[in-house]
Amino acid sequence: MKKLLDYQVGESIDLYLMIKQATKGITTKGSPFMTVILQDKSGDLEAKLWDTTDAHVETYRAGTIVRVGGDIHEYRGKNQLRIKAIRPAKEEEGVTIADLIPSSEKSKEVLFEELMAFFFEMKNPQIQRITRHLLKKHETAFKTYPAATRNHHDYVSGLIDHVVSMLNLGKALADLYPSLNKDLLYAGIILHDVGKVIELSGPIGTQYTVEGNLLGHITIMVNEIEKAAEELNIEGEEVMLLQHMVLSHHGKEEWGSPKRPMLKEAEMLHYIDNIDAKMNMLDRALSQAKPGEFTERIFPLENRSFYKPTFE
Amino acid sequence: MKKLLDYQVGESIDLYLMIKQATKGITTKGSPFMTVILQDKSGDLEAKLWDTTDAHVETYRAGTIVRVGGDIHEYRGKNQLRIKAIRPAKEEEGVTIADLIPSSEKSKEVLFEELMAFFFEMKNPQIQRITRHLLKKHETAFKTYPAATRNHHDYVSGLIDHVVSMLNLGKALADLYPSLNKDLLYAGIILHDVGKVIELSGPIGTQYTVEGNLLGHITIMVNEIEKAAEELNIEGEEVMLLQHMVLSHHGKEEWGSPKRPMLKEAEMLHYIDNIDAKMNMLDRALSQAKPGEFTERIFPLENRSFYKPTFE
Amino acid sequence: MKKLLDYQVGESIDLYLMIKQATKGITTKGSPFMTVILQDKSGDLEAKLWDTTDAHVETYRAGTIVRVGGDIHEYRGKNQLRIKAIRPAKEEEGVTIADLIPSSEKSKEVLFEELMAFFFEMKNPQIQRITRHLLKKHETAFKTYPAATRNHHDYVSGLIDHVVSMLNLGKALADLYPSLNKDLLYAGIILHDVGKVIELSGPIGTQYTVEGNLLGHITIMVNEIEKAAEELNIEGEEVMLLQHMVLSHHGKEEWGSPKRPMLKEAEMLHYIDNIDAKMNMLDRALSQAKPGEFTERIFPLENRSFYKPTFE
Amino acid sequence: MKKLLDYQVGESIDLYLMIKQATKGITTKGSPFMTVILQDKSGDLEAKLWDTTDAHVETYRAGTIVRVGGDIHEYRGKNQLRIKAIRPAKEEEGVTIADLIPSSEKSKEVLFEELMAFFFEMKNPQIQRITRHLLKKHETAFKTYPAATRNHHDYVSGLIDHVVSMLNLGKALADLYPSLNKDLLYAGIILHDVGKVIELSGPIGTQYTVEGNLLGHITIMVNEIEKAAEELNIEGEEVMLLQHMVLSHHGKEEWGSPKRPMLKEAEMLHYIDNIDAKMNMLDRALSQAKPGEFTERIFPLENRSFYKPTFE
Amino acid sequence: MKKLLDYQVGESIDLYLMIKQATKGITTKGSPFMTVILQDKSGDLEAKLWDTTDAHVETYRAGTIVRVGGDIHEYRGKNQLRIKAIRPAKEEEGVTIADLIPSSEKSKEVLFEELMAFFFEMKNPQIQRITRHLLKKHETAFKTYPAATRNHHDYVSGLIDHVVSMLNLGKALADLYPSLNKDLLYAGIILHDVGKVIELSGPIGTQYTVEGNLLGHITIMVNEIEKAAEELNIEGEEVMLLQHMVLSHHGKEEWGSPKRPMLKEAEMLHYIDNIDAKMNMLDRALSQAKPGEFTERIFPLENRSFYKPTFE
Amino acid sequence: MKKLLDYQVGESIDLYLMIKQATKGITTKGSPFMTVILQDKSGDLEAKLWDTTDAHVETYRAGTIVRVGGDIHEYRGKNQLRIKAIRPAKEEEGVTIADLIPSSEKSKEVLFEELMAFFFEMKNPQIQRITRHLLKKHETAFKTYPAATRNHHDYVSGLIDHVVSMLNLGKALADLYPSLNKDLLYAGIILHDVGKVIELSGPIGTQYTVEGNLLGHITIMVNEIEKAAEELNIEGEEVMLLQHMVLSHHGKEEWGSPKRPMLKEAEMLHYIDNIDAKMNMLDRALSQAKPGEFTERIFPLENRSFYKPTFE
């Protein structure tokens, strides 16, 4: 069935959608209106509701499922939705939030199982214990959070999806370059972004928390490793090296790592993270472009447009 | 009495000095020699010992007190000492290390007392408890460590000297700008560099530890605050804000702070730290320059030379 | 009494306000309108007047006092005023411009007296004579100009307010670091921005003059010192050092100083200027934020948002 | 058998070595000497020959095999060789250049065979034809050249060694991210540095040619692709995309690519190149470091030192 | 006769204009409209057509000549045209495209003749043959293309106009600095931007081609020189030096030159290109400004405004 | 007759030379020596005098003419002179300083006459009066100073040589771009570096003065224009524009101009200055290189080496 982002400019839609975000506004001339972001599994689009009342504001909140009729038009190079009809979905219509939010292709349980399998290739007990302890402590959130608020893996269970993809890439690298220490590399991959479960507000309508703003997921996670080691009575270099892996994974001071990588595995963790994030962004942008044309500019890829070849 | 740095180029010396650092070398033509850095309270100078033997290496180690005769000469714009006679000091000559190492002008006990007085101006019990706890935990090292391996306050008890000077400046600012929160500001000043007692190796012959290299004093201290709060059962915003104060005190990501200051007091902490360090460097460099001339280039001040006016 | 910036979004106002700025416009569809910035002592807000005539343009000029009824609404994260009724104030209503423009808390006379008191701590006659001469020459403007067109101390008598605040901070520093030369430091603080009285157009509706654009207040002031010295028949290093203080007070070439500070006092002048400007911006931004929230982004503070703690 | 780089400071050697580079010098006091770089398969070290004559200059040229006795000493943190005895090797001693120059672990024939196998996974005939044509044209040089004059893969057959390693990594990525076009990716990997066979002077004593300096291997190779397409009568997007792959593989303008990657495969080529080069540099530097210590600073890795953990 | 850009804000026009660009849009409230850019020889202005139909879209395409009545108004600091009446021009009205598009002042034939005269001052036969060959190959396009899509010489025959102006400047330089090689300098000037005839789509409605985006005019032209040399059987340094001239003419890697200039003539080519482009931009911007005022900000001149003196 | 820089490595010399600079040194082992820079019209070379006495220091001062025998050798890629015999020249040998210092090819009188001729093309009386006044005031120094302490035009009368060369280039530009105002352009060229006569110490053994360091030639000259205008009772825009020309001629804040050019003529002045300085550096460097080779790296040209073609 055709989804929201499958429609072209000029086409009409009649779809169940979820309100991802709703903001009140007032036109410069004084009439109230609302800006809503509507989504289904294919992605999201912005729309306006004009001449709205307080009742509309009550009804059309983030998280509400609605049935919407309208057309797709283009505004400053981006598609928008022009709403012609909108009403809240009725319970008996049987549409649930899970039907409308994008999520990883594999279920979080499958992903978690795949992740756990990587422990079989590890041998250092201290590193394993700390990693397992922190996974267990944050398991629920870790399985449902996105990896980011936007740009890449920004959907429900996006974080674990990203981590499992990175583990597979890590394994390929460790096979090609056998001098890499798998304990450090895999544990680093698993833990590097777990701090996001405290930095961000939750899987839906994700925002930065105050702690996220003031400390950031890197520092949060280094603290977590420190406390885990204390709780588990683990001392020794492993604790410090795991902290360094997390600390340095942004690669440069100006990208938020207070220390640059000083372990071979930390250097590789930074690359693996980058490649997996960029492949995710590129696949998404190229899926919207036609052969022989360029994608929209992709801001986190230095605002570049990418070309989609005419042959496969 | 005239000290090492009081002598001009061309003058002869006959002084007791301590060997700060000793390194073996071999000339490109193959003769062994030693490079020694000799110091007294006024500062240090480099010298060479030529045609040395294994016995010399044994005798002239870092920490040894020696009596040295020689002249001051200039080499590439820096003064050096040319040794004409050197022998280890004898015990009966009564010279001790404490006579020869530079240190803060006030004793560490006096400095600590001055520091403790600032708690009377604080009122938030959580912030006070964490700060006192960490001071107590690291008291011995905190009272003797330098603030840095070189550049500023790089002498025994330099760290507490720097902190007390910063507290006085902090108090002046808080008086002029009463909206500043003294609890956060004073605690931030006291704690900001305590992590150096783990980052650095000790008060003499100071070097970076492995943990110092891989984690850095900022991260080390944020961990310490986390553990202190846990141990003292303190929860709430104060913990996070203290961590942010420490985290952001370098002011910019490229200077090692994973987050820029987002508290007014954190912004001021960064300034206070800077001003006190720079005044220390400037006073030291200008004390070696003559009126109407420029100082040597000061690397951490963007390699600038400063002018010493001819009038006072 | 509640002032303009004390009203929240959704509240109605009925206030006397001054038109700070008025600009004609034509909608893309061709109807004339006006954008007016209205202010009282608490600050200013933008509003639109729709379907305006030439008569409106005549009536609603910058400097006019008006009585305005309307509501506060939000537009792109900033508050705006929606005007429902507007008319020029009548003379018998007794509202004056002085009632409506923000200004320093202390009167300019009090500030000037405070400033003059600092001369008692100076001892170098040349420096004093040049400084007094230039103060006298530009006294009227110096007492009424803002320190900047926006960002900090951008109100009537903002310049002298900023300077007196800096002098107090300078005195605190000179007390803590007695090696600082008070003559240079105080004269540098007093003179550093006097060139703004030529760079900017006046205390109200402040804009850059052509000379301000082409030469800038730094160069203008260095010229003024040159001419003052000539007129007063003063020669010697003091003239050059005062010029260097002014020249270098932006701290870096890329910030408009053709030379970086090469005097200890010049380095400190740059810090004092920065701290006082930043405290002014931070206090202003934080006064509009609620505890537990972040301020708007502050552009000249590298676009950062600052957090307002929940405790005092 | 112990090789040149296996000896520690203070140990004596007696080895056959090849002169990699020989430079005449004159001491500031006027005596002639020679600086020679001596190597065997383990790497190279610098040494001095003092008081040399014209006959020495004749005898000890680059490429000469010599028997050397001497000791290892340290000079400014780097090991050097102090020569005590040196003479040209005699033919009957049976030492050949191939015994003394470092080279890839696998033979160039094996590497070439491995490379050719990747064509079986490609399907686009134009891309294959151009790639095979250029490989054939430059086959001899391509099989023996180093990938660089220093830093990574800077040994005989280093270029093909680097390319085969990159192909294996490319295959792993293409398996994990199936949207990658293997034709473009593999051809890009194979061709990206073939221009080095014109940019550099040869497999031994490698230097930049004039053409290498003025045009660079990127431009040289884009020209080669243009001419190959013309010769093979191939038109169409494939030619342009292959040129873009080569053109953009340095990733940024400031690193010598006139265009940044605008193809997903070009973006990945840049990453693959980077990872393989960095792993080569890291493995080499870490092999010289002891557990629990840091490597020498590695210039092309932003001058960082890397830590070698104490556990495996 | 008064032309489009000669009218001031508030004046009415009645002119024949050409539609340079036409874009469909839909207001956020859903009504279709068109944005058209209208031009005559004096330049272009934007205008809107409201409530448009499919028939309008058909009628008002790029390239259509129309008769337009309306007024000039200002929008965000830029002039716009408010259309009151518009209709396609009739054939019998006798207005042609050539009457309405800006173009070089001299005809392309005159310019080409002037250009060819420079060959008389050249003496190296290889350089001349390659240059003549490429001129002949691309003559038609070279004579009609603009030098850029906007900013400078962005009109029909702008490229040759720019080149001839550069040649005159090159001749002046070669006269003042006789060590400059005229063969390299003139050939470099003539060829440096010929690649634009492939990078850009044509003389009117100019856009980047896919090849232009992926390879760029610099690389395209280096390829052309390579092929020309092959076709003409020319070998030797001249080919490489011509390629280097073209390659390096942007002056820095970050501006798209993979090599910086390494020939004196290449360094000068970069300057000549810059001066001629900037004089063109400055003359254009200053012609729109009044004496005693500043121009609009000029983006490619680092967004500066320039002052127009009150005296001549 | 063969001059100092005409000799190759390995050749012997016997020449009269002038000591340009003489510095005492002490070897690390304690023997006194001197480093002297010796020059004739062709340029300068460094040499050492070993085992020197106080008498040598007296005899071999800067400015002394000596007769020297020795050989040219190479040290770290630069030629040096090895002195075998040296003695002060005798008066009766008739060698004067003027015979040995490099200077402009034309005499300073001829240059000054050429410069004065440019006033005939100027028409604005205010600009002429200020320019003539300042030329007259500084005429003696202006005619003998170098344009810089090194890099370009760093010889006696180098400043006026540079200015006259720039005027010729300025005239060529004004002829090609007639919209340039010759009054501003020529006066800007003449005055732009006159401040160097105060920034630098003199024509021989040139160093920065204290005023040069603290204010810089740009600010010095802007002051001079201010005072000239006052003295001549000239008011009006011309004064400000001349100051802006001087102020902005370094082109960017980071290069020491507190304002970027905002006049067309100021923009061109920056280019003219650059071109003339670079041509001077390039001609000098290329004169020392052989055809088919690269020059030494030229630091102020971003450390590039330039290629000297094999053909003319």
From TrEMBL, chains A, B, C, D, E, F:
One Pfam family matching this protein: HD
Species for this entry: Sporosarcina pasteurii
HD domain mapped to chain residues: 162-278
InterPro entries listed in its UniProt record: HD/PDEase_dom, HD_domain, NA-bd_OB-fold, NA-bd_OB_tRNA, YhaM_exoribonuc/phosphodiest
A biological process term (GO) from this entry: rRNA 3'-end processing
Entry's EC annotation: 3.1.-.-
Protein origin, superkingdom: Bacteria
SMART domains: HDc
Keyword tags: Exonuclease, Hydrolase, Nuclease
Gene Ontology MF term list: exonuclease activity; nucleic acid binding
Name under which the protein is recorded: 3'-5' exoribonuclease yhaM
